[in-house]
Amino acid sequence: MTELLVADSFLVANGKVRGLDLHRERFVGSCAAAGVDAERFWDEQTGRLPGFGRWFPRFELQGSGELAVQLRPAPPIGGRVRVAVLDGPDPRTAPRVKGPDLELLGKLKESAPDRADEILLLDADGTVLEAAYSAVAWWEGGTLCLPPADRPLLPSVTATLLRRIAATEDVEVSEHPITPDALRNTTEAWLVNALHGIRPIHAWGPSPIDPLPNSQAPLWQSHLEALATNLP
Fold first, then answer.
1. Sign of the alpha-carbon dihedral angle for 106, 107, 109, 110
2. 185: which residues sit within 8 A by CB, 6+ positions away?
3. Per-residue pLDDT at 138
4. Which fold has domain 81-230?
5. Domain 4-70 identical in fold to domain 81-230
6. Facing residues of 131 across strands?
7. What is the C-alpha to C-alpha distance for residues 28 and 198, in angstroms, rounded to an integer?
8. Which residues are CB-neighbours of 207 under 8 A, at least 6 positions away?
9. Under CATH, to which class is 4-70 assigned?
10. Can you give 138-160 as a three-state secondary structure string?
11. Is 59 exposed, middle or buried (0-12, 13-18, 19+ CB in 10 A)?
């Protein structure tokens, strides 16, 4: 199997995408760091994506230096989510680049205990970095919180969009570390990514489902969806 150097995926829903400029920046920048100019390829291929239906294309830079696109139907969108915490250090080799660790992360997610939908990765100090396929955000009262950007994190398009929404809605944003136990006891915690948007954490490990009757997720999901723009 050819080594995957860079990858980027996003939801296309009836010809609209959230944060396409940010996906372009992340993919093209990672390709440039690997010595490949992907700007023209990205622009040509995004212009060919279908303007109908739901798709989850994956742009790739393979170890051979070849650029490719997999046009995949979008999986079902998830709602509430159960999480587990990885027992051990973050095993990724390139946490700031999407691609090299995708196979490893897929195996971690599939083997998560307690039938968890996602698994949280921890930094060396035991604080939460992100999940296998999602960034982490949480609420402390009326403040939207995220892990510090200087930690070994994948630059999350959806987390960046949440920051933009917070600025528009005059919501305070704070970046600071948090342990899994502290995260569990916050006002509300989310997993966010390009496919699902926002998924509130409703259960930890084997614990019962928390209904979260006052979740802010539906309102903020609508804010996210309002940012979707037409394909070029």
1. positive
2. none
3. 98
4. D-amino Acid Aminotransferase; Chain A, domain 2 (3.20.10)
5. no
6. 120
7. 25
8. none
9. alpha beta
10. EEECCEEEECCCCCCCCCCHHHH
11. buried
R_g (Cα) of the chain, nearest Å: 17
Specify the pLDDT at position 2: 72
Cβ(10)–Cβ(70) below 8 Å: no
Buried b (16+ CB within 10 A) or exposed e, 188-201: bbbbbbbbbbbbbb
**Both tokens of residue 108?**
């971690």
pLDDT of residue 1: 52
Return the structure tokens found at 167. 């600025």
Domain positions in the chain are 4-70, 81-230
Provide block-wise average pLDDT over 10 residues at a time, the chain (232 residues).
90 98 98 98 98 97 97 91 95 97 95 95 97 98 97 98 98 98 97 98 95 94 98 94
Residue showing tokens 């709602």: 79
Instruction: Output the six-digit token pair for 10.
Output: 């996003």
Largest CA distance in the chain: 50
Which of 61, 73, 96 has its CA nearest to residue 12?
73
Query: What per-residue confidence (pLDDT) applies to 215?
Result: 95
Give me the residue label for tokens 């035991």.
126
Is residue 85 classed as helix, strand or coil in its secondary structure?
strand
Q: Cβ distance 119 to 107 under 8 Å? A: no
pLDDT at 150: 96
d(CA 150, CA 128): 13
How far apart are the C-alpha atoms of 164 and 171, rounded to whole Å? 10
Q: Read off the pTM.
A: 0.96
